[in-house]
Design brief:
- The complex is a heterodimer of chains A (116) and B (113).
- Chain A is an all-beta fold and 116 residues long.
- Chain A has strands spanning 4-7, 10-13, 19-25, 32-38, 45-51, 57-58, 67-73, 76-81, 90-97, 105-107, 111-115.
- In chain A, 0% of the residues lie in helices and 52% in strands.
- By secondary structure, chain B is mainly beta.
- Chain B has no helices and 11 strands.
- Classes of the chains: A mainly beta (116), B mainly beta (113).
- The A-B interface holds A 1, 4, 6, 31-32, 34, 42-44, 46, 49, 51, 91, 93, 95, 97-101, 103-110, 112 and B 32, 34, 36, 41-46, 49, 89, 95-106.
């Protein structure tokens, strides 16, 4: 299947700082990427849908000013957690969906964010 | 919007037994139903999927069945092995590139040898 990478895989930061997470589709172009958050022993919760060249669409309850999403190209989307707090500590996972009739959605390996 | 329910939340089986995980969905417009396996600290891996024009799909020890009328689909794993131990998620969506998947809450499968 297609490959989606994320960087960094793990980050520890101090409260109040901002953290940027990159998501790349390595062997296909993705006009749309998705960002999910997963707390321990819970399911993946969709945060936002990232569209190349336009503003992201955020799910209800997700603060767009706190979780800044930029989809600069067909292979790169970034999520910036601004002014991070301990409650933002979570596993952040991006995905990209192949277009056309196949439509499989491929996930990155995730980024473990710990805010001290 | 779409809502996906998944059962059971945990499942323990002996090596060699079969495991069945069931999901229901609410939106009759959904037509794409993938299953993902997630190991600890990793992203989900697609293991099998099914579309609404198909009732059953099989890939070696893994099979998925879909009942569109009842709006439920199931994952079947036969001859389970310890390496099958993981969290399994079902999902549903409309099969279009810009459409996000909605996930069930997951099933923790433990296969003991």
């Amino acid at each position: 299947g297609a490959v989606v990478s994320q960087h960094p895989s793990r980050v520890i930061c101090k409260s109040g700082t901002s953290v940027k997470i990159e998501c790349r589709s390595l062997d296909f172009q993705a006009t749309t990427m998705f960002w999910y958050r997963q707390f321990p022993k819970q399911s993946l919760m969709l945060m936002a849908t990232s569209n190349e060249g336009s503003k992201a669409t955020y799910e209800q309850g997700v603060e767009k000013d706190k979780f800044l999403i930029n989809h600069a190209s067909l292979t790169l989307s970034t999520l910036t957690v601004t002014s991070a707090h301990p409650e933002d500590s979570s596993f952040y996972i991006c995905s990209a969906r192949a277009g056309g009739p196949s439509g499989e959605q491929f996930f990155g390996p995730g980024t473990r964010l710990t805010v001290l | 919007g779409e809502n996906v329910e998944q059962h059971p939340s945990t499942l323990s089986v002996q090596e060699g037994d079969s495991a069945v995980i069931k999901c229901t969905y609410s939106d009759s417009a959904s037509n794409y139903f993938p299953w993902y396996k997630q190991e600890l600290g990793k992203g989900p891996q697609l293991i099998i999927d099914i579309r609404s024009n198909v009732g059953e799909k099989k890939d070696q020890r893994i099979a998925v069945t879909l009942n569109k009328t009842a709006k439920h689909f199931s994952l079947h794993i036969t001859e389970t092995q310890p390496e099958d131990s993981a969290v399994y998620f079902c999902a549903a969506s409309y099969n279009q590139a810009g459409t996000a998947l909605i996930f069930g809450k997951g099933t923790t499968l433990s296969v003991s040898s």
